[in-house]
Design brief:
This protein is an alpha+beta fold. Helix content is 37%, strand content 27%. It contains 14 helices and 20 strands. The strands form four sheets. Strands 10, 11, 12, 13, 14, 15, 16, 19 and 20 form a nine-stranded mixed beta sheet that branches. Strands 1, 2, 3, 4, 5, 6 and 7 form a seven-stranded mixed beta sheet that branches. Strands 8-9 form a two-stranded antiparallel sheet. Helix 11 crosses helix 13. It is globular. The N and C termini lie far apart (125 Å).
């Protein structure tokens, strides 16, 4: 009997212990799931910009920012294109004691300082802290200040740090930084604002003027309309130096003296063309082999033997030929007509500049080509693209924003491999035959001046 009771007791004990273990595992499992869910929620919260702001702008924060600038002899410029545009269009609207423009910002109100001033006036950041601001700093890949966020009483103030480049423009670096810093500012930023802050930008240099907005004495761009327009097209894509280094290690050989001379002359020709096109207010971009050289090796292809640029036909200015020839660029070819397959070629010394004019057709864009001896027409088809800025060999120029798609259309998937033998009529994968020019039109659409 005793043995039977012991056996049953051991059985019940083992059953109880097993139940306890299961319960312990269950509790631990629930705790682990809760921790994981908490981390997931935290991750989503930190990585998703919010649109519900607990704070609105306090005008006193703006005044204290300006006070810090005055104390450190540093100029802060109102740099928010939406607020500037609203005020510039409605300067006649004012009301004593009412914040009409500045307080309608969604998210941080943006100001700008130059990197040179911020570097040379370290007392500015110290003074901001003394005035009660929480200061969050961000740096660009070179370790220089790129953005500053300030929080005091109301919603944050955002300082964009503008870097003056030797090519004559102002560079705004994309916002990036340590996760902790990013988390601090994300809670105040809408999705659209966040996407805008993650973009590199390039601006033309501008002068400033004094302005009173909502009874606050501010510094603003002198030509607000020009600044707002510049902001809309300011997207900047830097050359990928890592890709260029890899290409040079894999493919580049020592350049011959002739190739070195060509690259120097080609750069001079591109710089001259840029000056003339800017004077004529004709937007252009690097095209064909010149675009490939930029994207692949951050340089001019030494065996290319010409410079290629693209222009939307809508931007053509009839003064172009006259102005180019007046500045010493000789017209050697004029193919097509403005309404179809227009193309111009100029020469300076022995270097040729090709200007390809692009037409929009549905979801594609194309430029034409003409074979002079036969009148045969060709069409080079590209997926639709927009334009961005870049810096190429110390020149601020445009490129297709969708650069790789543009290059793949023109050179195929093997674009990274150098090819020295190229037939413009058959080598590009995007070329199509496009009919013939009638012989009766040849005198108009095939003009060759090789002499």
């Amino acid at each position: 009997m005793r043995q039977e009771l012991r056996r049953r007791f051991r059985s019940l004990s083992m059953y109880g212990m097993g139940t306890i273990r299961k319960n312990i595992f269950l509790v631990v499992g629930i705790l682990v799931v809760l921790v994981l869910l908490d981390q997931l929620y935290l991750h989503v919260w930190l990585s998703t910009p919010h649109t519900e702001f607990q704070r609105s702008l306090h005008v006193d924060d703006v005044r204290q920012l300006l006070r810090a600038g005055e104390d450190a002899s540093l100029t802060t410029i109102l740099f928010d294109p939406f607020i500037l545009h609203a005020w510039n269009s409605n300067q006649h609207v004012s009301a004593t004691g009412v914040c009409i423009f500045l307080c309608h910002v969604i998210g941080p109100l943006t100001f700008a300082v130059t990197h040179g001033q911020l570097r040379d006036k370290p007392a500015f950041l110290t003074r901001l802290a003394q005035l009660g601001f929480t200061v969050t700093l961000f740096e660009n890949p070179e370790g220089e200040h790129s953005h500053v966020f300030l929080v005091r009483k109301g919603s944050p103030l955002h300082l964009v740090v503008l870097h003056t480049k030797s090519a004559g423009y102002l560079r705004q670096y994309a916002l990036s930084g340590p996760p902790h810093n990013m988390a601090q500012v994300k809670q105040y930023i809408t999705k659209d604002t966040w996407e805008n802050m993650k973009v590199d930008r390039a601006y033309e240099r501008f002068s400033t003027k004094d302005a009173k907005i909502d009874e606050v004495d501010l510094t603003v761009p002198s030509d607000i309309g020009a600044f707002v327009s510049d902001h809309k097209t300011s997207h900047f894509i830097p050359c990928n130096e890592s890709r260029a280094t890899f290409y040079n290690l894999k493919h580049m050989k020592e350049e011959t003296p002739a190739e070195v001379r060509f690259k120097h002359k080609a750069w001079k020709l591109l710089a001259k063309a840029k000056t003339l096109m800017d004077q004529l207010k004709i937007p252009f971009w690097l095209s064909s082999g010149t675009c490939l050289g930029f994207y692949r090796q951050c340089d001019i292809i030494p065996w290319a033997m010409d410079v290629d640029i693209g222009v939307f036909i809508e931007d053509y200015n009839p003064r172009l030929i006259e102005e180019f020839q007046r500045r010493g660029l000789r017209l050697t070819h004029k193919f097509g007509k403005v309404s179809d397959s227009f193309e111009l070629s100029f020469k300076e010394e022995d270097i040729k500049l090709d200007i390809f004019f692009f037409y929009t057709e549905g979801a594609t864009m194309w430029n034409g080509g003409t074979q002079a001896k036969t009148g045969k027409k060709f069409k080079y088809i590209f997926p639709a693209f927009t334009l961005c800025w870049t810096e190429f060999l110390d020149l601020k120029v445009r490129i297709p924003c969708q650069t790789e798609e543009y290059i793949r259309a023109n050179y195929g998937p093997s674009w990274f491999t150098p090819i020295k033998h190229w037939d413009w009529k058959s080598s590009p994968p995007n070329v199509r035959e496009n009919g013939m020019w009638p012989e009766s039109m040849w005198s108009e659409v095939i003009v060759v001046n090789e002499g």
